[in-house]
Amino acid sequence: MLSPWLTQAGAHPPVIVRGEGSYLYDADDRRYLDLASGLISVNLGHGHPKVVKAIQDQAARLCFATPAFFNDTRLELADELTNILPWSEGGRVYFTTGGAQANEDAVKIVRLATGRSKVLAAYRSFHGSSAGAGTLTGENRRYANEPGIPGVVHFWAPFPYRSPFDTKDSREEVERALAHLELVISYENPDDIAAILLEPVVGSNGVIVYPDGYLQGVRELCDRYGILLIADEVMTGFGRTGAIFGSNRLGFTPDLITFAKGVTSSYVPLGGVLVRESVAMYFDDHPLMAGHTYSGHPLAMAAGVATLRAYRDEGLYERGREIEGWLRTGLDELARKHSVIGEVRGVGAFFGVELVKDRATREPLVAWQGKSQGPMPAFYAELRKRGAYTFGRYNFFMVAPPLTVKRSELEEGLAAVDAALAALAVTA
Ligand SMILES: Cc1ncc(COP(=O)(O)O)c(C=O)c1O
Q1: Cis peptide before 147 (omega within 30 of 0)
Q2: How far apart are CA 282 and CA 288, in angstroms?
């Protein structure tokens, strides 16, 4: 086997054989609290009985239906998704098998619907690893795709803790970031820009919550230049930020939303694009030149219907707000105790902890995009030894438990993080 993203020699991850609620179990029956909801995706926790049953029932009845036909479960999920759209005009859903494909097909949709070719995306973003999505990505996971697809241009978005705009004032950061974006737009020919693509909260590049006014400012720029706004909600969707979508929580309205992960709590691969009606209607008399054998796969559709109903019926779209309070309290306490913590950032059940060598200079504990992971592998190994799992990149790690997590479980997980940070201070 070749494992994704790893140098193969010397990799010894645990062998996971079962999951239940907030916990994963390995082949030796060791238990790990899942502080990352898998890959920020198992929002319902592991093994939710209603979703498992829905998949089993669907498997017994129909496992495949060609995407060109309608299918009862597909119509049911389209209906569920249509009920949570942010547009008063309505909208439509297009299904893919994951997040990268969703972003690539969103690019195709905006190019076809606008007749323009360029797409602007932020640095310090991740949009998937296949050829097109990898080109949209704004960091070193893009490099293996280069030269990539034509027509993608990157820009800098705000990051108050490590400002690309040379300011410590977040209002100034927003003003400068928007002025920079407008300059990029003007030099790329606004009439040829189909869309701007952004994560509402930057995920695997550090859980960066954009300061107030930025996303609204991007929306205004899009309106001024006739550019469509795509929100990549692959991580932020389905309750992760304490609202149905990150864009709901962050207070802006995109034109397209790409999704994956949480839509089925990741029990079956599924992604897709939500498209506002005024854009979707273009395809009423033009062919939508995109599609995949597994688009709208019945097993994924059944998982999606049961998952969305569980979020709604169990109040999980909002529960992230309660978890946010617990995480804020617990992680701030860890920051007071461990000087290796430079900043704790997050919203809802979606937090990142950034580690530094020195709080005053903010020098990262491990150089961002550097060759060495420094003491981080030992940190994650210690965390697992203490019965918890998470992941991160370079000098930050995620704390993003399932939306079903109990407070006592979370406290147990934060105690494991506390111990692993103490061990890190000794080795770093
Ligand atoms: C924001 C974002 N977009 C897209 C993707 C790619 O999704 P997938 O791995 O399903 O292709 C990811 C994956 O982590 C992501 O975090």
Answers
A1: yes
A2: 9
Both 232 and 348 in one domain: the answer is no
355-372 tens-digit pLDDT: 999 999 999 999 999 999
Residue 6 within a domain: no
Q: What is the rounded average pLDDT of the residues 255-260?
A: 99
What is the rounded CA–CA span in Å between residue 97 and residue 283? Answer: 21
Expressed as residue numbers, the domain containing 199 is 49-313
For ligand 1, the distance from its centroid to the CA atom of residue 392, given in whole angstroms, is: 14
pLDDT at position 176 is 98
CATH code where residue 164 lies? 3.40.640.10
Cα 118 to Cα 337: distance, rounded to the nearest angstrom: 47
Structure pTM?
A: 0.98
**Residue 38 alpha carbon to ligand 1 centre in Å:** 13
Q: Which of 124, 141, 235 to mutate to test the pocket of ligand 1 (most atoms within 8 A of CB)?
A: 235
Total domains in the fold of the chain: 2
Atom 13 of ligand 1, nearest CA residue = 128
Q: How confident is the model at residue 7 (pLDDT cuts 50, 70, 90)?
A: confident
Q: Does 182 lie in the same domain as 54?
A: yes
